[in-house]
Amino acid sequence: MQSALIVGKKICSSLLLRNWVRPLSAASDKLTNVEVNDKTGFAKLTMNRPPVNGLNLDLLRDLHQSIQDIEKNKCRGLILTSASNTIFSAGLDIMEMYKPDQERLKQFWTALQDVWLALYGSAVPTAAAINGHSPAGGCLLAASCEYRVMLPKYTIGLNETQLGIVAPKWFMSTFRNVLPRRIAEQALTQGKMFTSDEALKIGLVDELAATKEEALLKCEKFFASFAKTDPIARYLTKKQLRHNDIKELLDEKVQDVENFVLFVNQPSVQKGLGLYLESLKKKAK
Ligand SMILES: CCCCCCC/C=C/C(=O)SCCNC(=O)CCNC(=O)[C@H](O)C(C)(C)COP(=O)(O)OP(=O)(O)OC[C@H]1O[C@@H](n2cnc3c(N)ncnc32)[C@H](O)[C@@H]1OP(=O)(O)O
């Protein structure tokens, strides 16, 4: 795993946080980066897997570790964002699902479940500064946060049905937690990708911002809105509201992995994924 915790722009060497600092590998190898503002206590968690922040096993494991670290350090807010100028995250790395190694496939799905459980259930207030396109798994991450600020002229949505695949129940509950049920149902069945303006209109994002810096500031302003609330009361309220969604996955975690493995291995699904990958590569040329 290759993520680095940086406090106040420099690697933290205080006694309090010494255990936190995981060994740094070469900068080009880092998949996530955490910077904590030591004045505000807000953590910025940046995904950095070029070109599109495809969520592969390694990035998911890094994300999970970083979320846990932020939580353990009792940061006062977590802002999820991307190092790319145009892509928040392209969602699941389809290469993990196409002609997969079976053991890795299980680990991959388990890692995604763990990231979702940690982010959706986080005790720390969470926000996403969506500074680029955010399809499928990218949208799942953003929607798991409590607040979203998006830059203009990008797209966001759960587009699974357009790929001929079915988003699992917990993807859908995450959407339903943000959107009115009827809009969620239409969007999910159509596999609709929303422009930033459309996303704002339906409430999939809370605000638009002209730049990433402005988006980060707006996320911080959201955290500041909790200044007069008790953090434990705040967390317990969030926990109760999200309890059923979390419990549903926890109760079926192993079965959910089995369902995923079974689904992915179907010849028709493999064929569809292969064609989709080809179309992405053709488009890139
Ligand atoms: C099978 C059972 C499943 C059960 C449920 C699973 C739920 C699934 C959730 C998911 O997240 S599935 C993934 C859905 N994601 C997408 O549909 C996004 C696809 N990508 C795009 O739309 C675009 O790439 C983009 C994100 C809008 C970026 O466009 P841009 O023009 O900037 O870059 P590209 O030239 O298209 O891509 C660069 C490079 O990256 C490859 N790539 C893009 N997305 C993915 C991906 N999701 N997985 C793997 N690889 C991806 C793309 O092919 C290009 O590769 P190269 O040609 O450079 O090798």
Automatic annotation (TrEMBL):
Any GO BP annotation: fatty acid beta-oxidation
Pfam families documented for this protein: ECH_1 (PF00378)
Record localization: Mitochondrion matrix
InterPro entries linked to this entry: ClpP/crotonase-like_dom_sf, Enoyl-CoA_hydra/iso
Family annotation (Gene3D superfamilies): 2-enoyl-CoA Hydratase, Chain A, domain 1 (3.90.226.10), 6.10.250.170
GO terms for MF: delta(3)-delta(2)-enoyl-CoA isomerase activity
GO cellular component, one term: mitochondrial matrix
Catalytic activity entry: (3Z)-octenoyl-CoA = (2E)-octenoyl-CoA; (3Z)-decenoyl-CoA = (2E)-decenoyl-CoA; (3Z)-dodecenoyl-CoA = (2E)-dodecenoyl-CoA; (2E)-tetradecenoyl-CoA = (3Z)-tetradecenoyl-CoA
Keywords: Acetylation, Fatty acid metabolism, Isomerase, Lipid metabolism, Mitochondrion, Transit peptide
Main location: mitochondrion
Associated pathway: Lipid metabolism; fatty acid beta-oxidation
Domain of life according to the entry: Eukaryota
Function description: Key enzyme of fatty acid beta-oxidation. Able to isomerize both 3-cis (3Z) and 3-trans (3E) double bonds into the 2-trans (2E) form in a range of enoyl-CoA species, with a preference for (3Z)-enoyl-CoAs over (3E)-enoyl-CoAs. The catalytic efficiency of this enzyme is not affected by the fatty acyl chain length.
Stored PANTHER family: ENOYL-COA DELTA ISOMERASE 1, MITOCHONDRIAL, ENOYL-COA HYDRATASE-RELATED
Subunit (UniProt): Homotrimer.
Protein name: Enoyl-CoA delta isomerase 1, mitochondrial
Organismal lineage: Eukaryota, Metazoa, Ecdysozoa, Arthropoda, Hexapoda
Gene that specifies this protein: LOC119633894
